[in-house]
Design a protein that fits this description.
Helix 6 packs across helix 7. The protein is globular and about 55 Å long. By secondary structure, the protein is an alpha/beta fold. Strands 1-2-3-4-6-5-7-8 form an eight-stranded mixed sheet, with helices on both faces. Strand 7, helix 9 and strand 8 form a beta-alpha-beta unit.
């Protein structure tokens, strides 16, 4: 009976799985899945993909993956995903955003950063352009230090340190993020050039070094206030972010 039940999802899912081998294992990409997204007063359909890296995997079959799912304890981890808008595979011009997860900014609407604004604004820019993708990178919290460590970093910032100093005091490099996974997924979805939405030169450099077909970048400034002024200035002065002519609310 159990085997009969498992035949049903295999038949349903088999044409929605892409397997991309890499040196340490396999990346399984699931999608596209139709996802209505509310932007202001309009609901727009994006195509949603989620991916999972399984290290040490030798058998890339869908059945092997599904058999292993209950043992992978994925609910206790974070998985990344991407929202795709328009004909991302073949349209000549497309925007992309590599967006690092920010639990406090994206979910709670914290004003200590500009992440929540950048998330929504990137989707609006992609919609207005007509074609693009927003990669939501789940292992990038706190520039790669994780949510719990970020809570310590926030306490240190309240005691006077800036965002870079706080990470370094906890024993981390300023930026621990890797874009390797996202670049691998991007290559599976599109071969044509993309324009990166970012103020961060490290993201642009990572894409270029990977051999990704990036033909430029456009800035993303906004939602600046006295709550996040020091944070933004630190990113420009110490992390090398491209400067924006922002004014404080």
């Amino acid at each position: 009976m159990i085997e009969a039940i498992k035949e049903i999802p295999l038949k349903t899912l088999e044409d929605k799985i892409t397997v991309v081998p890499y040196e340490e294992g396999m990346t399984y990409i699931v999608g596209p899945i139709n996802l209505p997204i509310q932007l202001d007063d309009e609901a727009l359909f994006f195509k949603w993909y989620c991916w999972l890296n399984v290290e040490g995997e030798q058998d890339s079959s869908l059945k092997t993956l599904i058999d292993r799912l209950p043992t992978l304890e994925l609910a206790g981890q974070q998985q990344s995903s991407v929202l795709v808008y328009g004909d991302f595979e073949t349209e000549e011009s497309a925007l992309i955003r590599m967006h690092s997860i920010c639990h406090t900014g994206d979910i709670f609407g914290s004003k200590r950063c500009d992440c929540g604004y950048q998330l929504k604004q990137s989707l609006k820019m992609i919609k207005e352009h007509g074609v693009g993708a927003l990669f939501y990178l789940a292992n990038h919290e706190g520039r790669g230090i994780g949510l719990f460590s970020k809570a310590f970093a926030y306490l240190l910032q309240e005691d006077g340190l800036d965002t870079v100093e706080a990470n370094e005091q906890l024993g981390f490099a300023d930026d621990m993020r890797s874009y390797e996974e996202a670049i691998r997924v991007l290559a599976s979805l599109r071969q044509l050039p993309v324009t990166l939405i970012t103020n961060n030169p490290l993201k642009l450099e990572a894409l270029h070094k990977s051999g990704a077909n990036v033909d430029g970048r456009i800035p993303l400034w906004g939602d600046v206030s006295h709550y996040n002024q020091r944070y933004l200035e630190t990113k420009m002065e110490k992390a090398g972010h491209f400067r924006g002519g922002f004014t404080i609310e």
